[in-house]
Amino acid sequence: MPWPFTGRADERELVRRSLAAGRGGIVVTGPAGCGKTRLVTEAVRGADCARAAGTPGTRGIPFAAFAHLLPETVTLHRAVHLLSGARLLVVDDAHLLDDASAALVHQLAVQGRTRLLVVATEGAPVPGAVSRLWTGELLPRLTLEPLSREETADLLTAGAGTALEPLTVDRLHRLCRGDLRLLRDLLTAVREDGLLTPVPGTDEQAWRGPVPLTPAVRERAAHLLGRARPEERETLDRLAFAEPLPLDPDTLDLRTLECLEAEGLVRVDDDGSARLAHPLHGPVLRAAAGRLRARRLSRTPDRCGPALAAETDALNRRIAQADVRALPAPVGEWLVAEGAPVPADDAAVRARFARLRGRLREAAAWAREGLREDTGDPGCLTELALATAQSGNVPPAGGPPAGGTPAVRRGGDGGAAAWTAAARGDLDGAVRAATDGDPYDAVRLGAPEHAAGRLTGVFAAHADALARGDGPRLDRVAGELERRGFLLFAAEAHAQAVRIHRDPRAARTARTRAVALARRCEGARTPALSGLVLGELTARQRQIVTLAAAGLSNRQIAERLTLSVRTVGNHLYGAYTRLGAGDRDALPWLVDLPAVQPA
After folding, report:
1. Tell me: the pLDDT tens digits for 10-28?
2. Which residue from 48, 82, 77 is spatially nearest to 67, judged by alpha carbons?
3. How many other β-carbons are positioned within 10 Å of the β-carbon of residue 259?
4. What is d(CA 28, CA 16) in angstroms, rounded to the nearest whole number?
5. Is 161 strand, coil or helix?
6. Cα–Cα distance, 25 to 17 (Å, whole number)
7. pTM of the entire structure?
8. In the Cβ-directed half-sphere of 345, how many Cα atoms lie within 13 Å?
9. Alpha carbon of 342 to those of 206, 258, 309: distances in Å?
């Protein structure tokens, strides 16, 4: 059975609009396996249409793609006349059309009576008559990009019927590079081989170990596994077992490497290191190597120390530079994929880098990897607590000491106590804890006055814009935070701007941008983001609603906030009215970020 259609909602709507009355249709292109045919199928579902498709074996037969729609012998003129009565014609795999069929599609586009939905694979040779559909501006062209990592995660959850932990999602996304057929094939093999294992303390499953050599995987790597020249296969295998490798004549045959680079199988980084061009190639070559060959070439985990330390240092430098844009770190990823332990210190840095990027579930996953090696590591415990609390959940008991560890504080990220209090709905306590810890936490919690003079750069600009109530400047700060990779911080800045803007249009734009960024942050639920829904409430109403949504009774809320039960009830009633909620049961839905819709 096909997986549920996931992602591509905007593209589907664009295709549907292109087929409306008065429009000639559209051409959809994209890499092989990226979901072009599925998108088109969903876009025309329920519509009356004729279908045709090119095939590799019939490119020399005139009108082969339309044989089921045309008489046995027919001229181009007659074929155009016969098909001009079709209201909608879907032509799949148009890059494989024979010349006569391609000319027929082109003439139908020129005539303009039949709406055309043409699908072609990008990067493959395309008949000139087909390419002129968009180069000649007869039809608009939609080029599909690979699904984002977030969309891939949604698709995998829907296809697997269970949640996959973030490092497994990253691995599958990286290996498949948008090829959805390969993605499904790999996940099916991993499930059937029993390679998915539960992650303790979560409802997620993880995949560790080698890549299954399924027929689809072998097909995509046939040009590697079948190299005729032994020196090419030797070079590829050396890279597979120890990439990246320096351009050392004693290690690599540089002339052979040049040939492989010209074929697009190898790439050389700016630092002069060589690696395989596609993430799938290394695992396939390793899995296909014999035991003796693997023993000769293999880089065992205990020999990864220097390379892993270099990656950790690079991540730390980027954090210090306030730049957390994606940075390749293949050695750590390889260790996790192989099921080898990752030193706790390295795992904590990777968790921190992921958290600062807004990848909270990934941060928690890296922290858990480090805790496998050292169950009491304070850095990993702190990162796990921070990722958990900023996802809106109260961290389990036994976490790090209040305020985080000195190492984390020196890095400018302390405040496990602050975010734990925020997760419990105690915003006053959260601000007090943030005042003693990381001053930027106070800004994120809406109390910039507690950070005055204690921040620099874009973080100081955020605090100043919020303190001055300057909505446009907050939006500009959010843009800079996004550019640097701080997606969660950017979402929070936009969300704070929503409540400050005097221009309703500016507020709607900020809200839309905040929601879009927050959805990329793996379920983040911080007070600023809750404000996307609760922004019309008073501070006290927001505080009470947050506690009520967490399941506390009116009496428990009253005791925690030192209020009367009647006062709590009155605040809740006023909040229900403003939020359009009928009762307490609706509050978790309203506070939950995925339910937020742009205004």
Report:
1. 899 999 999 887 789 999 9
2. 82
3. 15
4. 12
5. coil
6. 9
7. 0.79
8. 9
9. 16, 34, 11
